[in-house]
């Protein structure tokens, strides 16, 4: 057994994750680390796939005799999230409940709204010629769509967007983190109130669908509803924002590729997959072995924790030709950024839609954006999501275009 010094939450990993992953793949593709109580790091494409696909041997949720539990992250998150932290057979009932709202046809119907919201976000900054691409665009667009899908009020979108973004990148114990937590508690209050309202008068939104649903003949408890809703929020907002931020930052340094995408937006679907592979917005997630087993020649004991490194798998030389190169038209591109197996990302089509529309609109309306690379701030820890705190940019000012979302919001306040 090879024990390595590996911590996906460390500043070293945030700065050097590509090199650290490559070292592990070459030296010890199934390695043991003592960080966070000890776990295995799985780095090769085929090993990660084998573990993710074997949900009987590798569990996403276990209650332990000491009253603690395991889940999909290392260390375990304070709030359980469902269905990502649930095993079959119970898992299937929840996934079935959610699938229709995120099917390709449902997601396609959201495109006009996503474009409208993107127009609204760009209109707010376009006359000034200056923006923070994260706080003004990459974070708000997924945040506002998530509010709308769930059926939560959209007028406080800014607080919601800042809260979901700040929760991921601020350090526990700092005033910024306290503010983000306070925002999250306010949000939980808002969700609780919406659950009560939708029970009394259902509307056409995901919270109404969930409060009307039954599993094994019983409605979902308030606690369970909250576990599902927080997953839709935390799984969908900052992940997509990070993908957008990473792509906009990369395009700043590759003007010829930026011009290529601007002139021919039909290249964006393939480019989306390549940005997903190259940046792996969710670098890795966890499982727990339910029985003694062998992975990559290493014996894993029942109860051991495993970190599935999607980001390492996505750069495995045995799975991708020249994985260190961004090839916007790479094909095939079987990246693992959305995971695989039964827990494969529920919102993958939503993320792809938001990414494509935001990129199309930014490249069309801010074609000459220049990021202040000195002031651009990456996350100091990428243990959960790999993104940017802030990407300040300037561009040639232009006139706002007008959006239905902004007129709708004006009437909200009348
Ligand atoms: C670029 C954006 C995104 C990335 C990289 C991403 C990544 C992932 C990954 C890796 C998993 C697999 C979890 C596992 O195997 O344990 C997952 C699951 C999930 N994602 Fe995403 N996600 C993104 C966007 C979204 C969006 C937009 C939503 C919702 C609208 C969403 C909701 C979920 C949910 C609910 C699950 C759990 C599915 C299950 O357990 O069956 N994600 N995501």
UniProtKB/TrEMBL annotation:
SUPFAM superfamilies: Cytochrome P450. Signal peptide: none annotated. The keyword Iron applies. GO terms for molecular function: heme binding; iron ion binding; monooxygenase activity; oxidoreductase activity, acting on paired donors, with incorporation or reduction of molecular oxygen. It comes from Cryptosporangium aurantiacum. InterPro entries: Cyt_P450, Cyt_P450_B, Cyt_P450_CS, Cyt_P450_sf. It comes from the Bacteria. Pfam families: p450. Belongs to the cytochrome P450 family. PANTHER family: P450, PUTATIVE (EUROFUNG)-RELATED (PTHR46696). This is Cytochrome P450. Gene3D superfamilies: Cytochrome P450. The keyword Transit peptide does not apply. Keywords: Heme, Iron, Metal-binding, Monooxygenase, Oxidoreductase.
């Amino acid at each position: 057994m090879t024990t390595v010094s590996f911590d996906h939450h460390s500043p070293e990993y945030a700065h050097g994750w590509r090199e650290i992953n490559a070292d592990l793949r070459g030296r010890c593709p199934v390695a043991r680390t003592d960080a966070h109580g000890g776990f295995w790091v799985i780095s090769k494409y085929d090993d990660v796939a084998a573990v993710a696909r074997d949900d009987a041997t590798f569990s996403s949720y276990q209650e332990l005799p000491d009253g603690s539990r395991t889940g999909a992250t290392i260390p375990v998150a304070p709030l359980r999230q469902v269905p990502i932290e649930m095993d079959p057979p119970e898992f299937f009932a929840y996934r079935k409940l959610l699938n229709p709202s995120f099917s390709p046809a449902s997601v396609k119907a959201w495109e006009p709204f996503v474009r409208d919201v993107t127009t609204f976000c760009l209109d707010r900054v376009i006359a000034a010629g200056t923006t923070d691409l994260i706080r003004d665009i990459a974070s708000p667009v997924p945040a506002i769509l998530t509010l709308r899908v769930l059926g939560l009020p959209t007028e406080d979108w800014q607080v919601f967007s800042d809260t979901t973004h700040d929760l991921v990148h601020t350090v526990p114990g700092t005033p910024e983190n306290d503010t983000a937590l306070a925002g999250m508690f306010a949000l939980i209050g808002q969700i609780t109130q919406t659950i009560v309202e939708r029970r009394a008068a259902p509307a056409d939104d995901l919270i109404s669908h969930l409060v009307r649903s039954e599993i094994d003949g019983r409605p979902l408890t308030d606690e369970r509803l909250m576990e599902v809703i927080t997953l839709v929020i935390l799984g969908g907002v900052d992940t997509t924002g990070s993908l957008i931020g990473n792509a906009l930052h990369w395009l700043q340094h590759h003007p010829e590729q930026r011009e290529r995408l601007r002139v021919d937006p039909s290249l964006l679907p393939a480019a989306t997959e390549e940005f997903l592979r190259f940046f792996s917005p969710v670098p890795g997630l966890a499982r727990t072995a339910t029985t003694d087993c062998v992975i990559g020649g290493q014996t894993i004991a029942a109860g051991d924790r495993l970190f599935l490194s999607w980001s390492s798998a996505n750069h495995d030389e045995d799975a991708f030709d020249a994985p260190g190169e961004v090839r916007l038209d790479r094909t095939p591109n079987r990246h693992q950024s959305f995971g695989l197996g039964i827990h494969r990302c529920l919102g993958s089509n939503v993320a792809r839609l938001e990414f494509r529309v935001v990129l199309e609109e930014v490249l069309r309306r801010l074609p000459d954006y220049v990021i202040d690379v000195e002031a651009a701030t990456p996350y100091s820890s990428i243990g959960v999501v790999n993104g940017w705190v802030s990407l300040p940019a300037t561009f040639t000012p232009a006139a706002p275009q007008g959006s239905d979302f902004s007129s709708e919001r004006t009437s909200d306040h009348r």
